[in-house]
Amino acid sequence: MEQATTDQGSSGWRGPGEPAYLDLAGRLAAGDETALAGCHAALGPALRRYLGGRVPADLVDDVLQSVLMELWRCRDRLDPARGLEAWAFTIARRRAVDHLRACPPPTVPLAHAERACHGEDTAERVAREQDVRRALAALPAPQREAIGLAYFGDLTQREIAGRLGAPLGTVKARTARGLHRLSTLLDA
């Protein structure tokens, strides 16, 4: 547990067995409002990290706030001897699940689903790939090779120059000229 500073000064706790930590839990259970600020200072960063892995980033602060509100609202159920941290994380897990249930599931527009089912995009994609292959075949070999290594080999211009044993400027020129020629061939 991180060290935290509350309105009461430096608490210095590092875990649930520390006297200052037990004191914070006892003060919260007794209804001391400054203890809630202490809980936020002590548990807030860890709860935020925990929630960050469970809810969308834009909901983390909202869920954390609801956790702290519930800590205060249900403080009469807290047994300081059993541990404030475990209780807070249990509440955090439950509030994260509640927030996720309240969010509508992501949807796919019907038009996209129909195209995926009927394969219209697939046929168009295959036809386009054939056009690109034909256009690539019409390029001079040095341009075709530079473009192939860049796009299909996923190499940088510098890596292509090293592989081909050509100057970097030459590789850049071949790629640029080849892409311009491809654009012209595909638009025709």
From TrEMBL:
Key words, A-Z: Sigma factor, Transcription, Transcription regulation
Gene3D superfamilies named among the record's database cross-references: 1.10.1740.10, Winged helix-like DNA-binding domain superfamily/Winged helix DNA-binding domain
The family this protein is said to belong to: Belongs to the sigma-70 factor family. ECF subfamily.
GO molecular function: DNA binding; sigma factor activity
Cross-referenced PANTHER family: RNA POLYMERASE ECF-TYPE SIGMA FACTO (PTHR43133), RNA POLYMERASE SIGMA FACTOR SIGZ (PTHR43133:SF62)
Domain RNA polymerase sigma-70 region, chain residue ranges per copy: 44-101
Annotated source species: Actinomadura namibiensis
Protein name: RNA polymerase sigma-70 factor (ECF subfamily)
BP terms from Gene Ontology: DNA-templated transcription initiation
Tagged with keyword Transcription regulation: yes
Keyword Transcription appears in the UniProt entry: yes
Annotated InterPro entries: RNA_pol_sigma-70-like, RNA_pol_sigma-70_dom, RNA_pol_sigma70_r2, RNA_pol_sigma70_r4_t2, RNA_pol_sigma_r2, RNA_pol_sigma_r3/r4-like, WH-like_DNA-bd_sf
Source superkingdom: Bacteria
Residue span(s) of domain RNA polymerase sigma factor 70 region 4 type: 130-182
